[in-house]
Amino acid sequence: MNNQDDIILRTENLTKRYGGVHALEEANFTLKKGEHVAIVGDNGAGKSTFVRQITGVEQPTSGDIFFEGKRVEFSSPLEAREAGIESVFQDLALCNDLDVPSNLFLGREELLFKFGPFSILDEKKMMQKAKAVLERTAIKIPNLSNHVGDMSGGQRQCVAISRSASFASKLIIMDEPTAALGVQETTQVENIIRGLKEQGVPLILISHNLRQVFNLVDKIWVFRRGRIVGEVIAAETDGNEIVSMITGMQGGVHEKASYI
Amino acid sequence: MFKRENLPAEASIFAVFVGIAVLFEVLGWAFVGKSFLGNVQRLEIIILQVSIFGIIAVGVTQVIITSGIDLSGGAVLALSAMVAASFAQSVDAFAPIFPQFLGLPIIIPIAVGLAVGAACGWINGAITAYTGIPPFIATLGMLVTARAVAVIYTKGQPVYSLSDSFTAIGSGAWPVLVFFVVAVIFHLILKHTVYGKHTYAIGSNEKAARVAGINVRRHKIMVYTIAGALSGLAGVVMCSRATIAQSGMGTMYELDAISAVVIGGTSLFGGRGRISGTVIGVCILGVITSGFTFLRIDFYYQEIVKGMIIVGAVMLDQRRQAKQRSRA
After folding, report:
1. Which end of chain B is more exposed for a tag (fewer CB within 10 A), N or C?
2. Interchain contact, B208 vs A81, CB within 8 Å
């Protein structure tokens, strides 16, 4: 099944160096349509560096990125976004002083009347759409007209994720989406991710939480010291094997490791 | 029971406004033996006085919402007034600036004044957006430069003998009407248009705005250009009312405008604020000025009180911001 048409994202020998530091070395990565994968690895393994290259935040030192079969060079996050790659950043990138619909539709507002920058907003339509989107995610936000800055971390995270999920994006990347969340909020975010799977939206998940990774994704990519050291089907492996790959040490000494 | 959170943000500022007015009324009866508010003529003078810097404040509100600042309002007012007036001299003007341009239809000086203001604002915006120079410095440079150009323009001479049709637009209640219309228009624009939404977004989180696809540079230039054009409009109205243009016009108006904006609840951190608040802030400053004169208290005490009110307003804003940060 390694048909070219089946692959949404592919990198070829993707390399990033910061001066003498080899943050990412010849990463060859593929993602199929509708596939959910996780990227795991220790701190400094190159996970975030990898994501920064494919989302246009940084430009690779060498190597190529192919998105939907075409070679792409994103010079900014905006270009990647326009191509259909949505990322949920760790710092969320929300406007705290705006309400939920304004955040969801920022930069692509629904209009009542078109007149350049002075186009009139269709606030009713945006509110209705926002309600519908958040209903699907089953997140409870009592009043969508409240400023996002006045909401809890979980609610904010769900707004950020819903924004990515609510637009016809071709690929969603989430960097530690539940790192700062409570149990209930984590469950809600995980439900959103499952919903994306059902809709066939491909996803790259970066997470330190291996249990979450096993719960959510089809395939796990393991990074170590800037290199991809493994690509395993989630159903065919276990926490021990993954941890061995992350640390580079063999042996079943990881049962009591608290991150499994 | 009604909760404080359910009231519009302007309610508390309006309460302060009413409180100050009532205070002067009481002090008036106690010390001068006259009513402060009972004098219609005084109220008219208050509103006329504040209208000019009020027009500037409408533009400054938008700049501050993007978390910028515009210090050039008063100087741009003077330059715009000088240039506009030079195109508004009557046919019988003595030693006119442009002998070939006398008795022009008033639309020309008005358009020229707005254009000069807009050009100054555009320069402010372009410097801020493209060089990374803080708006405080960029607009401070414009404050000094525009005032100097206003002097050089006529070699220091005032421009007078303005045509009757031009001075008519500053007469009577016209300045108030212009201020009111400008305020209403921009209140609605900020609230209901893409321009407004993006203005708040940039002030709230510039990086998020950029990632969301907003052309932040272009938008900032637009905001500063609008602020400049409004200063230009204030210049046109002011010289038409005074029937003369002088390079020293509108000195310190930028500070009155900024004060009104801050008192009106617009956050210096950006992202928050409304024109309706600014209008109340403008009225508060007007009442204070008029009230002190009414009580025959020295001008400098009035400045002290204004200074304290501004600092108090910023302190309130900081506390509000800190509260929000601790919750988020």
Report:
1. N
2. no
The string of pLDDT tens digits covering residues B41-84 is 888 888 888 999 999 999 999 999 999 999 999 999 999 999 99
**How many domains does one find in chain A?**
1
How far is the CA of B68 from the CAs of A70, B56, B131, B197, B269, in angstroms?
Answer: 41, 15, 14, 16, 8
pLDDT tens-digit series, residues A30-63: 999 999 999 999 888 999 899 989 988 889 999 9
Does the pLDDT of residue A81 top 60, yes or no?
yes
- The model's pLDDT over A181-222, given as tens digits with 9 standing for 90+, comes to 888 888 888 888 888 898 888 999 998 888 899 999 999 999
Running DSSP on this structure, what letter comes out for residue B155? T
ipTM field: 0.85
- Residue A143 lies inside a defined structural domain of this protein: no
- Domain assignment present for A141: no
CB pairs under 8 A between A and B: 85
Length of chain A: 260
> Of the candidates B192, B201, B222, which has its C-beta nearest A121's C-beta?
B192
For residue A78, being part of any structural domain is answered with yes
Please judge whether B200 and A95 are an interchain contact, meaning their C-beta atoms are less than 8 angstroms apart.
yes
Task: Name the β-bridge partners of A175.
Answer: A206
- Please give the residue range of the domain that contains residue A20: 4-96+168-247
CB contact under 8 A, B204 and A95: yes
A93: contact with B, CB 8 A cutoff: yes
Q: Choose from B3, B185, B193 for mutation: most chain A CBs within 10 A.
A: B193
A188 part of a folded domain: yes
Structure-block tokens of residue B68: 């910028």
